[in-house]
Amino acid sequence: MKHVIQLADQVARSEASILITGESGVGKEVMARYLHTHSRRADKAFISVNCAAIPDNLLESELFGHEKGAFTGAVARRIGKFEEADGGTLLLDEISEMDARLQAKLLRAIQERVIDRVGGAKPVPVNIRIIATSNRDLAKAVAEGTFREDLLYRLNVVNLRLPSLRERPGDIAVLADHFVKKYAAANGVPPRAIGSEAKRALVAHRWPGNVRELENAMHRAVLLAAGTEIDVDAIRLPDGRPLLGGGEGGATPAASAYDAGVAGQAAQVADAVTRSFVGQTVAEMEKTLILDTLSHCLGNRTHAATILGISIRTLRNKLNEYADAGTPIPAPQSGVAAAYGAAG
Questions:
Q1: 3-state secondary structure of 93
Q2: Contact 242/256 with Cβ under 8 angstroms?
Q3: Is residue 99 located within the same domain as residue 148?
Q4: Which residues are in the Sigma-54 factor interaction domain (predicted)?
Q5: pLDDT single digits (tens) 220-244
Q6: What is the pLDDT of residues 2-26, one digit of tens each?
Q7: Are 97 and 51 spatial neighbours (Cβ–Cβ below 8 Å)?
Q8: Which of 43, 90, 111, 326 makes an SS bond possible with 85, Cβ 3.0 to 4.6 Å?
Q9: DSSP conformation class of 277
Q10: Neighbour count for residue 249 (Cβ, 10 Å)
């Protein structure tokens, strides 16, 4: 991670487009903000757009703006994020989810420094720096024909790959201490030290959700801790299970007992799941799996799509289909509820 920060410092003051890659939750947006605050544009706007969270038919207007009467409901001119970010930095989060037509329009904006509002007849000049992020392999997306090669070259002048948390275990305890202080202050409770057994468990955990998952776990631990320090019992997974990890010697006795109990139930669970699917169509099984996964992720679309192994666009289309048929869709949780679940 030290090497990544050194490279970020080296390129921050340039005008080059930067592509930040890495797994979900590693802190790509935090890195983008770091680049902006260390750039020559630091006193100008930093505008972020999540390309995966906005439907394709709305993303064009969101990015480029529209003229009055450009489409039904366009009762007034509206500037887009490109114009909002003029003079500053525009972050295109999860750029891989942008459709091919908008990719072409984005390429022109980057190359010519002008944009076309939806329904507009006159190009609008813009002066911005582009930072893009993706948790997908864009070179593979190019090979599959879902991402433009010329756009990748324009975006990927400098690539900052953020390592997963499991690749940098030495950072875990430092980050955990930081989050404890942050959320102790936010919740008006005294900061507690993290116990030695708890630290060993934190380092032993794989953290599939990376820094976001660790931050969420320590927020929860601050609220649940009862003693003079945060012990391992206060550190819980999003579903409420204890974080059972050992230190250098492997799993703790409690973890071994817990895992043995889980293993003893696995066959029964698998058999029950199989029986529950008998008699259902493939579409019905898919719907059940998608909605159950979304509920498990507390409505977080990005996390659910990652677990399901599909793009967030595919997930969004499926959810729209289910909603149109009258099926209730789990909404993303926030506030106090989110403190006990996955971070959004």
A1: strand
A2: no
A3: yes
A4: 1-223
A5: 999 999 889 999 999 988 777 888 6
A6: 899 999 999 999 999 999 999 999 9
A7: yes
A8: 90
A9: H
A10: 8
